[in-house]
Write a structure and sequence with these properties.
With 342 residues, the protein is of the alpha+beta class. It contains 11 helices and 10 strands. The strands form 2 sheets. A 7-stranded mixed beta sheet has the order 1-5-6-10-9-8-7, sandwiched between helices. Strand 7 and strand 8 form a beta hairpin. Helix 1 runs parallel beside helix 4 and helix 2 runs antiparallel to helix 4.
Length: 342
């Protein structure tokens, strides 16, 4: 007579490859006249002190049988599905898995950094919440300058008597931090997110991204700045790109300029994008004001330098022909998938 252990061994080693063999296995163990029914009926003949152990062993056998039956049925169903679809070519590649792509702002940011690091610029970072000194005062902003007004800046309410802080309005605050902690020569880029209290539209947003640059050393001139920015423009937009510097005003540079590049769309011939001028503005720049150097502990009689700043969204819009600034922050996958090949 077979013991419970014999049945367990038989179940574990049983192999069924057809529906008939599976059904035979089920009937043998799980039918009303099957082995398990007989084993449960035998319970009344077991000594009371042994019934608990006996019952546990019979239940263990039942679980093993049910697991084995389920396994056989799953294998047969899978085989039927394959047969219905024809033979399977195991050499075929698997179904492709969709992958994400880098954001266009990240692509342009990395390209700008790559261009400037080739000529010795390093990358510096700073906090997005800034105090008045680093965001305004050290950069030569007068007390009544419009940029301090609530229309432009997101000020943060602090406890009474605390220092005034705000979300930074430019990454020039990082320039101040670099100049305070680094002795010239300084050649650094400051990429980051900035915030302005502006109405959101196709050409403006309450947050955007900038890359600013700073170069300070002995004998740095406006000509050095012009040549550096010409190099950048041609690396970014093409070897035939020209630049144009127009006089402007910034509190932290003197002299200051706005820089235009040849229109990427019409190549300088004139179109509706450049308003038929052939030029597109991409950044502000200028020689660092001596007061800014002095505020940061650098001797303006010994050192000079230039600074520049550009909006990454602005460059991305020109490079990719994007007409609505809001697309960069809406996370619409239909828009973002266009940059998967970059």
């Amino acid at each position: 007579m077979s013991t419970l252990q014999d049945h367990l061994t038989e179940v574990e080693g049983y192999i069924a490859t057809t529906k008939e063999e599976v059904e035979s296995f089920r009937l043998k163990y799980l039918s009303k006249k099957g082995i398990l029914a007989d084993l449960f009926a035998e319970m009344k003949n077991i000594a009371p002190d042994q019934r608990k152990e006996y019952g546990q062993q019979v239940n263990e056998l039942k679980v093993k049988v049910e697991e084995k039956l389920t396994s056989f049925q799953s294998i047969l169903e899978a085989a039927e599905d394959v047969a219905a679809g024809g033979p399977v070519d195991l050499t075929l590649p698997a179904a492709p898995m969709p992958i994400g792509s880098r954001h266009p702002i990240t692509l342009i940011r990395n390209r700008i950094i790559s261009i400037f690091t080739r000529i010795g610029f390093t990358v510096s970072d700073g906090p997005e919440i800034e105090d008045d000194w680093h965001n305004f005062t050290a950069l030569n902003f007068p007390e009544n300058h419009p940029a301090r007004d609530m229309q432009d800046t997101f000020f943060i309410e602090m406890k009474s008597g605390s220092q005034s802080v705000a979300l930074r309005t430019h990454t020039s605050s990082v320039q101040v931090r670099v100049m305070e902690t680094t002795k010239p020569p300084i050649r650094s880029l400051m990429p980051g997110r900035v915030f302005r209290n502006e109405a959101i539209s196709a050409r403006a947003h309450c947050f955007f991204h900038q890359v600013e640059g700073l170069y300070i050393d002995e004998g740095v001139t406006f000509a050095d700045m012009k040549q550096t920015l010409l190099y950048f423009s041609r690396e970014m937009f093409g070897a035939e790109t020209q630049i144009r510097l127009r006089p402007s005003y910034f509190p932290f540079t003197e002299p200051s300029a706005e820089m235009d590049v040849t229109c990427e769309i019409c190549k300088g011939k004139g179109c509706n994008v450049c308003k038929y001028t052939g030029w597109l503005e991409i950044m502000g720049c200028g020689m660092v004001d001596p007061n800014v150097l002095r505020n940061c502990g650098i001797d303006p009689d010994k050192y000079s330098g230039f600074a520049f700043g550009m909006g990454i969204e602005r460059i991305a819009m020109l490079k990719y022909g994007v007409k609505d600034l809001r697309l960069f922050s809406e996370n619409d996958v239909r828009f973002l998938r266009q940059f998967a090949a970059e």
